[in-house]
Amino acid sequence: MDNEKSYQSTGTLQRVIKLNSLLSDNPGIIDGIMYGIVIGKVEMRTFEGNDRHQRSVLNFTFRDSTQDFVNVAYWLPPKDLIIISGKFTIGDAVVMHYPVVKTKLGDKANSYTPWTPLPIELSLNEKSYIEKIEGPKAKQYEHLAAVPCRAGNDYYTLAHIVTQGEQLVKKLDGINVLAGVQQIGALKTIRTRRQRETDYDNEEKQLLEILLFDGETSGVWLTFWDSEQIKFAQRWIPEEHIIFCVGLRVRYDEYRKVYGLTATRHSLFTINPDTNESVQLYESMRLIPIDDLLNVAIDGGFNEQISDENLSKKEVFNLNVHLTDYTGTIKNVKLGDDVARKMLKCSVDEFILMTGEQKTKLKWTYLLERFRFGIQIKNSSNYAKPIVRIACIFPREYLPSSINDEQL
């Protein structure tokens, strides 16, 4: 058995157990302790037990080596679990005392937890406990925070989200994404009206939106609804952090007609992953000023009903344009507010105040000029033809140098 011995503050000697020494065919309580790092955590859930007493569960993902990580479920009464949950967060090094080994159940039973490579999962209860550690022991595990949970080249680009969103929506288990943090939005509070089995049908929920970008595409929003994931994402640094995201859902926003990403209970996030792909992405993003990435910057989409008392009623651009290249013309292409504002370099209010002469001059600044676009095509049962929308406009240095280059 791969283990070591460790003295605790009480002076007692306890075995240190590693994940790779645990077997699925030998379940039961572990007579020892386990050191590692928390790589994922979601907010606790509460249930009514058969005895009419409430029980709560806190799910998190624990890692103790580059290869091994498992899901952990901590079961306690709600008031006790709230205290425990507040003592550690994603990215913390921890030690678990007396966890229980269980055989991993089927996919249905694990619908609320991330994928893990081992055939086991761990459980904590009243006889167990977990605590955050610091100092030299914690430093032994800090490097694991930079190890992605899937292969470093197993991901979709943001361009895939924009152009292939219709197909990616069907991936119910989610997708992996490698992208940089461009902007962290303000924390919002909304009131949901979803039907649930608990008493929280009309509760207030917080959401956080993170604007992602990479070397070629920007304007894809990642939306968080979970309070633990929100706290973690708020620590990300725009233009400095590359994020390897596992288990994101692609969703379509019917109002804004764009695709975006949503974090779920399956999602795991690695900041500045130690991979060649991450280094290359960081270097490529440094070559392009973010202000030059003229892309859609709109919400990633979600299926929630919200009250309209705080909704913005400001006027926005909603233009139809024709795009022409050497093969022909696409008519009535949608040019949304965010792309239009960045392209025209003015707001709706400023545009309204322009004279006719100023508007004509602005039109000829772009009419018949060459641009490189990223477009999104969406089939709709309400229209005979698909809806074509400009998703992004690339900087001018990305234009081909000749027609022949464009045809390649």
UniProtKB/TrEMBL annotation:
Residues 20-146 form the MEIOB-like N-terminal domain. GO terms for molecular function: single-stranded DNA 3'-5' DNA exonuclease activity; single-stranded DNA binding. Keywords: DNA-binding, Meiosis. GO terms for biological process: resolution of meiotic recombination intermediates. It holds the Pfam family OB_MEIOB_N. The keyword Ribosomal protein does not apply. Belongs to the MEIOB family. PANTHER family: CELL DIVISION CONTROL PROTEIN 24 OB DOMAIN-CONTAINING PROTEIN-RELATED. This is MEIOB-like N-terminal domain-containing protein. The lineage of its organism: Eukaryota, Metazoa, Spiralia, Gnathifera, Rotifera.
